[in-house]
Amino acid sequence: MKYTAPMDAQRFRKLADELAERDPGLAVRLRDARDAARVLRDAAFEAYRRRASEIGAAYLGNIEVSGVEPDEKHIDAVQFRVTRGRFEVICVAIARAEGKMRVVGPFKRGKEEGPCAEAPLRGSVVENLLEERLAALVREATVV
């Protein structure tokens, strides 16, 4: 067995310092974006699921809502996904400046993502946008 020297941990400490110094306020803005995404996510489907269950149609509530996770494409954003079958909506909370929420979909997984719209992180504009997109997802995903 050939001996290999351990990786230089100091090199990676310096790299982390360098990258964090690019935007020192990002951690705070990202925490705010994550909080806004969690609030939006938690409210997403509860009334719909509850009503579907009350009328004996619990199968209509088979909708998955992911946790709030790091965004797949950008380091300054977090996301959550709402899926039913092959249909999906992605909500991305972006931590730039005052922040914004990007809502993508509904679309079929594996196909081109879209449509895409943006709104402030909080408030009735983003709530209405998400409600509209989620209603579209449910309608498309429950076609018999």
How is this structure best summarized?
This protein has four helices and six strands; from the N terminus they run αααββββββα. The protein is an alpha+beta fold and 144 residues long.
Description:
- It is a single chain.
- This protein is α+β, with helices and mostly antiparallel strands and 144 residues long.
- The chain has helices at residues 9-21, 26-43, 46-54, 124-141; strands at residues 64-65, 69-70, 77-84, 87-94, 100-108, 116-119.
- Strands 1, 2, 3, 4, 5 and 6 form a six-stranded antiparallel beta sheet that branches.
- A hairpin with a 6-residue loop joins β2 (69-70) and β3 (77-84).
List its salient traits.
single chain, 144 residues, alpha+beta, 6-stranded antiparallel beta sheet
